[in-house]
Fold:
Amino acid sequence: MFAAQKLSKESQIKALTKLNSDWANLKKMSKDVKKEIAPLVAGEMDLNNFNIKKLEEDITLFTQEMRKREFFNYKCGTSLALEKLDGVFVELKVFEEKIADYGDNARKFGNPDLIQKAIKDIETIKVSVDNMKVLWDHIDVCQKTFSKFLTTKWDDTQPFEMEDVAKSLFKTLKDMKVDKKASAYTGILDEIKVWLVFLPLIAELADPAMRDRHWDSIKKKVGVNFVRDSNLLLKHIYDLGLG
Structure:
């Protein structure tokens, strides 16, 4: 029994010795392989770095080109603008796929920060698009509000309440984080300003102190003869261009 235990221990020692030797050889082989493939790894890393740099340039060009698109122009209209803005997210998926691919490689090569600029640039584009969507939603609200104003009968016109609404629309617009030089922004801003000038004039015209002779004077000034009856709408006064 003692001899069997001794033999077992000797076998264990031999096995451990062989395992240690195999491990040493494996580490040596690993170093040799690493040294052998180093040029290939360096080449792949350089290629990935080049791809990331090219991606950054492409995103920059995309951003510059995007500023020229229809949805920055007030004449585009809400429906088309929102449709085009949604389309931008589809286009961004191409960039995001490359970011995922190149970013994964960058992490493998130990340079995860290399892809961060591209990620931030795409996020900046998304924020800009989201802000433009908010702007166009507000433009839609403004235009519908003013259209409703115009179809109001003269006898039902409430200029002070309307002015409060216009002021609220103006404040909301001014607080938006969008490109305030964009035509879409300046277009609706100018339209709101027209109403902010027009409504106080309407308040004066609706004053009970207004007499027929005052109205006659206005008709003569604008060269338009209109009748103040139940068919008269605010639009008819608006179209006179009194402001």
Observations:
- The two ends are 117 Å apart (CA to CA).
- The mean pLDDT is 88.
- Residues 2-66 form the longest helix (65 residues).
